[in-house]
Every structure is written in structure tokens, then in C-alpha cells.
Amino acid sequence: MASRPVLRFAPSPNGRLHLGHAYSALFTWAAAEALGGVTLLRIEDIDTARCKPEFDAAIIEDLQWLGLSWPEPVLRQSSRFPAYAAAADRLKATGLLYPCFCTRKEVAERAAGVDPDGKPLYPGTCRNLSPEKRADLMAQGHPHQWRLRTNEALALAGPLTMTSFDLTGERSERQVRPQDWGDAVIVRKDTPTSYHLAVTVDDAFQGVTHVTRGMDLYRATDLHRLLQALLDLPAPLYCHHKLMADEGDLKLSKSRGSAGLKDLRAAGWTSDEVRRRLGF
Questions:
Q1: In what order do the strands lie in the sheet with 185-187?
Q2: CA–CA distance, 237 with 224 (Å, rounded to integer)
Q3: CA distances to 27, 36, 56, 211 from 39, in Å
Q4: What contacts 119, CB < 8 A, 6 or more positions away?
Q5: Any idea of the CA torsion for 148, 150, 155, 159, to the nearest 10 degrees?
Q6: Given pLDDT bands bounded at 50, 70 and 90, which one contains residue 10?
Q7: What separation in angstroms does the CA of 180 have from each of 34, 116, 120, 228, 278?
Q8: Residue 245: phi, psi to the nearest 5?
Q9: Which CATH code of 3.30.70.1290, 3.40.50.620, 3.90.1150.10, 3.30.70.360 fits the domain covering 6-278?
């Protein structure tokens, strides 16, 4: 598998797949075909509270209905927590991670602007707590997450770039700005990782050479490139595709109740109709 391009489709089993997921899946399989590569299926289920076995099974059902297949076994991130913890421990050993005891409300109240996702930018409240204060708070059982000292990490890694590709074979490069994320959360309070850490570790573990995903994750790549440099991991090529929108020009979303592929099947849609509508 290492001799040819490796791509991956990595949905989270916290709801049913909708047309936006179908577009992303079909785009990824089309890219793999164009590149002469293979697409892996990865189930990103680190959120053990929201991810459900029935949604995991539904993902398989929906993708098979679309006519897609993949090599077995399917990697599920819930089986990889020790690997994420090891990566986090490596960052902690360098002093690049620190515990943060702030609540979301406190971050919002003291925010130093917004991050690339438009969310409150962490002001660094816990960055310079004394070792004694940190140890005391942790001993008392205060919930905490671990944040990256992003500026220090970037100074260590040096200037970084990401390389984008498209289906015609064209490539382009840009310098990334992980500092725009501030001191990002790398290990969450409720699980020994974050999306950013898990996806970075697993892309390397699975030998992913080309990443396709929506434009909503375009700037997240800046942070992933920094983590790759810090953990001595290879950098894939990236292609960020358009997002599917509803009649109100809003991105399709599970949380907004966008119609699932199961609902479309029940309404009489065929997989060929889905492919035609999405341009495949």
C-alpha cells in the first residue's frame, strides 16, 4: 500500500451521514481513482459520549449503498487512545503542553479575539501558572485540558508550509499560521486527545499521503502541520473541497438536522441519483 497514494475518509459516528458527507466520500474515492491510490475508512469516535454503535453501523450501510468499498480492517480511533496519550506525553516532556483549568465561559469572557473558526481565542490565563499552583489545582481534582504553547512550538519548528493538490495534478504551497489558533487544546478534559492530535497521529500511522476534506478544515491544517513537525511525522498533501449547502446557503450539518442518506433512500432516492446530483 505504501507504493501508491493512500487517502482516507474519516466520519464521526455521532449522527447519520447526509449529502455533505456523501459529497466528501465520493470526492475522496474519485481522487484516489484519479491518483491510482486507495481510500481507507477510518471511524473518528474519540467523543465516546456522542458517538454511538448504531451510527457506526449506519456509516457502513450508507457508504456501501453509495457503492464504495475499502480495505479491512476499519480503524476506529477509540482503540487508539494509548497512541494519542503517548504523543501527548512526548509534547508534555518538552514543556510545550500546559494544563488549563479555565471553563468555556471564562475563556469567552476573557477572549483575545477569535480563532480561524470564529470561536473565542484563548487569552493564555493558565500559561504562566507556577508549577506549585498547577500541582495544587490538579491534586484538588480540578478538571483541566492541555494546551499547546503555540508560539514556543512554532519557534522550535521554524517556518512551515502546507502543500495542496488538485485532481489535475497541480500543486501549490503556502506558509501556515498556527499562531492564529492561539494556545490550542491538544488534550481535552474528557478524553486523552483532541481532534487535532488524533487526526495527525493517525494519518501518519496509516501512511496517508493525500488528505481530502472540506474547506471548513482548511485552516486546521496549519495546526496539524505544526504537530507533525513537533512529533517528527510526515506531512501529507492536502485538498480541501467545497461544502454542500442547503436552500438557505447554510452548510449541511448533523446538528442542524440535515436530511440523512437514510431519509433520502426512504423517499425513493437511488444511489445513482445521489451521485448525479453531487456531480459524480
A1: 97-100, 145-148, 185-187
A2: 12
A3: 11, 10, 18, 10
A4: none
A5: 120
A6: very high
A7: 34, 7, 12, 17, 33
A8: -120, 160
A9: 3.40.50.620
- Quote the cell numbers at residue 33: 481513482
Look at residue 179 and give its three-state secondary structure. Answer: helix
Joined together, the cell numbers standing for residue 200 give 495527525
Task: Tell me the per-residue pLDDT of 161-181, one tens digit each, with 9 for 90 and over.
Answer: 999 999 888 999 999 999 999
Strands 185-187, 145-148: parallel, antiparallel or unpaired by DSSP? Answer: antiparallel
Distance between CA 25 and CA 280 in Å, rounded?
A: 11
Comparing CA positions, the residue from 210, 212, 220 lying closest to residue 176 is: 220
Q: Which three cell numbers stand for residue 154?
A: 512554532
Q: Are 17 and 41 in contact (CB under 8 A)?
A: no
First to last CA, the chain: 25
Q: What confidence category does residue 3 fall into, taking pLDDT thresholds of 50, 70 and 90? A: confident
Q: Which grid coordinates belong to 247?
A: 436552500
Read off the pLDDT of residues 67-108 as tens digits, 9 standing for 90 and up. Answer: 999 999 999 999 999 999 999 999 999 999 999 999 999 999
CA–CA–CA angle 227, 206, 72 (5° rounding):
150
Q: How far lies 213's CA from each of 33, 114, 121, 239, 277, in Å?
A: 16, 23, 24, 7, 19
- Cell numbers representing residue 36 in the block: 491510482
Q: Could you tell me the pTM of the whole model? A: 0.94
